[in-house]
Amino acid sequence: MAEADPVNEPVGAESVRPKGSEAAAILLMLLGDEEAADVLSRLEPDDVQSLGSAMFGVADVSEEQVENVFDLFLDRAKARTTIGFGATPRIRAVMQHALGEERAATMLARITPPARSRAFNALRWMDAKTIAALVENEHPQIAALVLAHLDAAIAADVLQLLPADMQSDVIYRVATLGEVTSEALDELERILAEQATRPSSSPAPLRGGTSEAAKIMNNTRPGTDQRIIKAVAKVDKRLAQTIEEEMFVFDNLNELDDKNLGILLRNVENDVLVVALKGANEVLRDRMYGCMSQRAAQSVQDDIEERGPMRLAEVLDAQRDMLAIARRLADAGTILLAGQGEDYV
Predict the structure, then answer these.
(1) What SS3 string covers 240-281?
(2) How far is CA 89 from CA 92, 108, 201, 226, 264, in A?
(3) Chain segment 102-148, per-residue pLDDT in tens
(4) Does pTM surpass 0.70?
(5) Which residues pair with 27 in a beta bridge?
């Protein structure tokens, strides 16, 4: 008897093979309570949420689907190796054997990934309101440390829940955050876990910086970002400018719709546009050409070819000039800049 053609096989409850979260949910539901709880305790918060939602949808599954899940699990299990299990002790032993104990310790201090503090693990399970309530009465440096270890979107929510007069100080400290001392981690442990911890012997992790601050700012509500940037500028104008530049880079112009991109192009001098487009990626360059008249686009292309090689610094300056014009037009309400999740400024 010929095998059924999977392409022409009718789609129904029996033919649908669970995948992803649904397959994981079925497998988890087949485990005992303790085993299932042990699995969940090892997952990330987002994974627990996704898996928990899927578990509600797999109450009525067929025997065939269960068998498919077992087959999928066995295939994945066979493909796994054990090379990553117990890797840290083995790497330490190899280093000590090759370099000696003292030199190995120095080398391992440089290359060992910093262990995540229990406090940071606890943060990942809290909502923005809870985190804000925990840090709003603490030193702004503690608040900055917390925000720098959160996902940018969550950090932005926390920032906006903090007192307005505290927000600029916190974002300033995020942008200038460097090594995180063991004392700071101990203080955070005290606040979040209400218990003292031993000072960590692992290398002090580097977090924060202007890029981290810019990511947080990109997720704030319209208007909040400029208010905080202006307040930071009063303390450190150059730092505020760096954060603002990292919030909005040249490639972000591709997120503008044709109408807003066209308005921007009409406000940029031709010489600036030619140099800026010299360093633009092909997709963005074609978008801009498409927002010009055919004659204007051809003229810009000809100018770019005639100019030949240009210094990178010159191109970056022209792109910064275009971004400055875009920000001025946005502040005046002439164009809308997409770039803050689902919000627009």
Answers:
(1) HHHHHHHHCCHHHHHHCCHHHHHHHHHCCCHHHHHHHHHCCC
(2) 5, 11, 16, 49, 57
(3) 777 777 666 665 544 555 666 777 788 888 888 888 888 888 888 88
(4) no
(5) none
Is there a contact between 145 and 182 (Cβ–Cβ < 8 Å)? no
Q: Is the dihedral of CA 83, 85, 86, 88 positive or negative?
A: positive
How many alpha carbons fall within 13 Å on the CB side of residue 91?
13
Q: Which of 148, 191, 138 is nearest to 172 (CA)?
A: 148
Q: Give the number of other CB atoms < 10 A from CB of residue 330.
A: 21
Which residues have a Cβ under 8 Å from the Cβ of 57 and sit 6 or more positions away? Answer: 22, 25
Are residues 257 and 339 in contact, defined by beta-carbon separation less than 8 angstroms? no
Tokens linked to 7: 């392409």
Strand partners, 343: 340
- Are the CB atoms for 143 and 208 separated by under 8 Å? no
Q: 250-286, pLDDT tens digit by residue? A: 888 888 888 989 999 999 999 999 999 988 888 888 9
What is the C-alpha separation between 265 and 260, in angstroms, rounded?
A: 9
Say how many C-beta atoms besides its own lie within 10 A of residue 83's C-beta.
Answer: 8
